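Today's session is about reading a structure prediction critically. Students often jump straight to the picture, but the first step is always the sequence itself: look for stretches that repeat, for charged clusters, for runs of hydrophobic residues. Only then move on to the predicted structure, which in these notes is written as discrete structure tokens rather than atom positions. Here is the chain we will use throughout the hour.
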Amino acid sequence: MDYLSSSKIAKIWDLSERTVRNYCAEGRVPGAYMLGKTWMIPESAEKPDRKPRERKTPTTLLERLRFEKENLIKGGIYHRLQIDFTYNSNHMEGSTLTHDQTRFIFDTNTIAVNGTEETVKVDDIIESVNHFRCIDIVIDHAKRDLSESFIRQLHHVLKSGTSDSRKPWFNVGGYKQLENEVGGMETTHPKQVPRAMRELLLDYRKKEPKTFEDLVEFHVAFERIHPFQDGNGRIGRLILLKECLNWDIVPFIIDEQHRLYYYRGLSQWDSKRGYLIETCLSAQDFFKRTLDRFGIEYK
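Below is the predicted structure for this chain, in token form.
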């Protein structure tokens, strides 16, 4: 039997010599043996078939979201999350868009208005589209450490192109310049916001691994700082989504059923911490049903 070197076989098989050597090392070329540092291969050996590349099946929620997002899959958990999360979070902040209109914008990048008398705010449409992009950013960078720059990036994307962004005092992607309040409660003064945010994130990074309560506690502190002129609630809930995905915690959506309990929980955090936590856990149970429906496992 005549033998040829791996370099000559590589030319015959139209492969790189490295690939041929790997085939030999894996035992996929019968009769091949090492002579010094060179693989000797029977001249009559047949070229092995390439092994089909195994496609990793998405198992976690984050993997599934990334897979469906990258492959433009409609009707899956990614599609459901984008529409439900965006509709409910924007609705809490006064958006007039219905759930169907939000879905229509996501599916077709257009808006359907029934009849001729119904009106829709342009800002509502822009902020829905921007919110879809924010969720994509959250999914893409879920495993990235939470930082001020990331939080400001979310705000910049959410508010870009809105009427607020054209106001000289509205700092898109930057911290507030004017005092504001939430639910009748004072928030951190604009001059104190940078320091307050640095300290909040510093304390948050010390806690590892993060628990469900750690995430809720951070959310309360963030909303009390209220670092941006507008959009704080939506940014805060986007951060919750990101951190849930990061730490393999089932996320949740504050819908109409939980909205008033959520606001009450925020305002009564100091005296009744369990109120907000139980509200978020209840919302989480709702989302678990969605995961069950799509066959996604969770802890």
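Discussion point for the tutorial: DSSP finds twelve helices and five strands in the chain.
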